[in-house]
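As a warm-up, study this chain.
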Amino acid sequence: MSFDGSTIHELAYELNNELAGGKINKIAQPENEELQLTIKANGKNHRLLISSNASLPLIYLTDNRKESPITAPNFCMVLRKYIGNGTIKTVTQIDFERVIKLEIEHLDDLRDMCTKFLYVEIMGKHSNIIFTDSDNVIIDAIKHISFATSSVREVLPGREYFIPPQEDKINPLVVSKYEFIDTISKPTKVSKAIYGSFTGISPFIAVNICNEAGIDADVSIESLTDDELERLGDTFTIYMDKIKENQYEPNVILVNDEPKDYASVRFSTYSDIKPYNNMSELLESYYSERNRITNIKQRSTDIRKIVQIHIERASKKLNIQRKQLEDTDKADKFKLYGELLMTYAQNLPAGDKKITVNNYYTNEEVTIPLDDTLTGIENSKRYYNKYNKCKRTKEAIVPQIEQTTKSIDHLKAIESSIMLCENEADLKGIKDELIEYGYIKRSGKNKKRSLKAKPLHFVTEDDYHIYVGKNNIQNDELTFKFATGNDWWFHSKKIHGSHVIVKVKDNEELPDHIFEIAANVAAYYSAGRDSSKVEIDYIQKKHVKKPAGAAYGFVVYYTNYSMVATPSLEGVTPIQ
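Now compare it with the structure written out below.
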């Protein structure tokens, strides 16, 4: 979700608590549309990062220091001139808008106390950082906006600062329950009526208010009963009361362990969440993790494309080979024709296009097509040659089909491994494997490669250690170099997935709940992650074998147990 009014409200509250009364020690502009203020408050230095970047506008406290250009941009110089040693008096939100206002006091050239305002507008592509005097006259802005760019307002030195009004939207902090019900009574769906009527309410928040009230967000307002409207009004009021009373519970909503959304309060409809102490900590972690995931996905695109191309090529090759194998099914017929012609048509002259003879194996008549330029004996030899060719083709094509099938299976296993990549080292492991099998040419700089790999490592509450391979190389090392004979091995049945090893303690038997936890982990790290149920095979490692010459991660086993598992990491804690 983008910044909404509740996120801004919590940030303003947090920043005011941390920064009010603090002195600005340093002003930097690391990027064209980004500021970093260093403020000494409450006995420590705080770094406030403000970005007006259209794709990712942000404001939060951070411990990270960003490098600044040697020559400061004009906007940065203006801020240094006026408020370089200023004191932050207050940090507030304007109504419930996505605007934060920093009130800053400083001494002018005559040593008189003056007030300036720094407005931070977090509004997507319209985001800006605007510096004004005490009368709200713009001194400068990080982005200058003329009427040629916007017909709503100009953001230029000397112009009056104002927030563009949102037509027909009301500040939700000042409405009662029944005012809320009256306001949303319009011919549209419930969620749209909420976010379309109030400032600072995002579609995400509107939908979740509906969910909390037990109402379908997509139904029309007119379809709601009086009781449902009352319940919706109560839920909205409870949500806004938490905001007004600063009762925040900042949390990130996770889907498959990846951050998908965040909220300033807790919604009961989400069970898989990660709580944070404050919104700054949440935002820094959330966007850092999202950027990491995005970067890994972007960097894995080339490798994924290479794998997909080889899968397509191998699949076409397999189709051709199977067609060739189907053609060899005529071998027995060709052999029979040759034998019957040798028996019945020894004196048959050339010129006939077919002959009908008795099949002495079935006592039925058989019509055999002939080449009319050949004699009976020559036609017999022609059919024997076809038979022998089919026989040779079958002997050659069967192992080829087996090899091509293994190659496709291997490539699909690599394709599944790509989704588990979390960093550059993981991608490097997959690239090493592709080089090893000739799918990628080894460059001059990459003549040597290391197959050293670290699997994922988890521990349960009762101290059982679980290891997960993230690619075929790791799977191979984990199963055949790390695991010992009595350790337990888990793997998804008939679909690609990671090898999962549970280390036993002094050869004791595993508790039943550890089998369930490990099976859930194996289901999570498999191609069936998005399914509700995945069948898992498990067996002691000593019964798992690797055929000679098999690809990394390929194993065989003949006696095993199976269970149905739910893809989940519940019950385990990751160890770095």
